[in-house]
């Protein structure tokens, strides 16, 4: 629908469309108020989940892709300096934290829902904190200014996944698409085999990386300058606040939405790197990361919701680029739908492999030994 529009038009459309992140955030209070007025009160709390994972994949197909890239010489330097795009991402932080606190109050105090409505509410809130919250956090922790770094860490602490701030930048981006990276899913590996290792690796490797950093400074791992201690302490304060304000149900809500949010993050990791790897060179080292080492998804609608996160190939090749100037590379491996649709597909391993395994094999056509030697797992 938009693929043939001039690049300048698309850049203008997207500069406004990035505000779409507000739609799922505002969908939380909208679904609550609708449940109070409608006879299907226990169905409305599921609204955000159903729209994100049911409606948006269909709309991605209908609306189509966006192949517009900004001009590197003229537009990129200007766009990267525009405070508008930075303000847009930072504005999501108070909105998300306010939504989270209010949603916890609703979970505890709304007596019109049974357990079905409560489950839908927690899943919807976790979907928002996982999709919008962690996406914004991901954008911010890759940037150098301390306000952005701290805002990203704050959002991660709000879902009990502060280790991601360390492990993602200093671990995943270094070892992406190699056997050393637990966040890069292997060919033939099911989502359910991938998740436990990803959870554990994120936590343990973050501590290892931070301990190594402190050791170089002559400091022990258990030191106040250990960044992880601060972020996990902040998560504990969030939990304490929910508990004191809302009781044990408030604590349950906070933990549950956190679990949903960081699980959604790891499912996206599974989707972004499935079966792809950096080839091992004759000297035993891996080739440098480039745009062919991550799955790209250029569907316009989901890219607007997720601050161009789906242009993941460019992000891994050039991690410091801001979301508004990430590029589409036609020669990167391409996903057949946006992230929402691919997440649903990943939940059903036989369907996932039916769709994705032929694409991986096509990518390695002529060098299948790379696939069998480095990636083949059956789990």
TrEMBL record:
It is found in: Cell inner membrane. The chain crosses the membrane at residues 12-32, 44-63, 84-107, 119-137, 228-246, 252-271. Residues 114-343 form the Fatty acid desaturase domain. Keywords: Cell inner membrane, Cell membrane, Iron, Membrane, Metal-binding, Monooxygenase, Oxidoreductase, Transmembrane, Transmembrane helix. It comes from the Bacteria. It is a multi-pass membrane protein. InterPro entries: AlkB/XylM (IPR033885), FA_desaturase_dom (IPR005804). Its main location: membrane. Belongs to the fatty acid desaturase type 1 family. AlkB subfamily. This is Alkane 1-monooxygenase. It comes from Pseudomonas spirodelae.
């Amino acid at each position: 629908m938009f693929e043939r529009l001039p690049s300048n038009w698309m850049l203008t459309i997207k500069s406004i469309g990035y505000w779409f992140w507000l739609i799922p955030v505002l969908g939380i209070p909208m679904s609550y108020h609708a449940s109070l007025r409608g006879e299907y009160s226990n169905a409305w709390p599921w609204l955000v989940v159903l729209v994100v994972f049911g409606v948006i994949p269909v709309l991605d197909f209908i609306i189509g892709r966006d192949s517009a890239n900004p001009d590197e010489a003229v537009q990129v330097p200007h766009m990267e300096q525009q405070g508008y795009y930075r303000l847009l991402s930072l504005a999501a932080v108070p909105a998300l934290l306010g939504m989270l606190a209010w949603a916890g109050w609703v979970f505890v105090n709304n007596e019109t829902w049974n357990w079905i409505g409560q489950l839908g509410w927690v899943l919807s809130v976790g979907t928002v904190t996982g999709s919008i919250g962690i996406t914004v956090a991901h954008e911010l922790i890759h940037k150098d200014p301390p306000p952005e770094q701290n805002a990203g860490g704050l959002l991660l602490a709000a879902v009990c996944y502060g280790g991601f701030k360390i492990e993602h930048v200093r671990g995943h981006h270094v070892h992406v698409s190699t056997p050393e990276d637990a966040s890069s899913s292997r060919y033939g590996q099911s989502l359910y085999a991938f998740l436990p290792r990803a959870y554990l690796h994120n936590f343990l490797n973050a501590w290892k990386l931070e301990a190594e950093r402190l050791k170089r400074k002559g400091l022990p791992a258990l030191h106040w300058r250990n960044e992880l201690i601060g972020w996990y302490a902040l998560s504990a304060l969030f939990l304490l606040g929910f508990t004191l304000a809302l009781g044990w149900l408030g604590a349950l809500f906070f933990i549950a939405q956190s679990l949903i949010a960081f699980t959604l993050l790891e499912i996206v990791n599974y989707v972004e790197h499935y079966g792809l790897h950096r080839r091992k060179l004759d000297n035993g080292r891996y080739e440098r990361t480039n745009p062919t080492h991550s799955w790209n998804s250029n569907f316009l609608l989901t890219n607007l919701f997720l601050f161009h996160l789906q242009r993941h190939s460019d992000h891994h090749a050039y991690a410091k680029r801001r979301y508004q100037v990430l590029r589409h590379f036609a020669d990167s491996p391409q996903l057949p739908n946006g992230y929402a649709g691919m997440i649903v597909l990943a939940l059903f391993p036989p369907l996932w492999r039916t769709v994705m395994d032929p694409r991986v094999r096509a990518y390695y056509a002529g060098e299948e030994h790379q696939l069998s030697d480095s990636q083949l797992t059956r789990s």
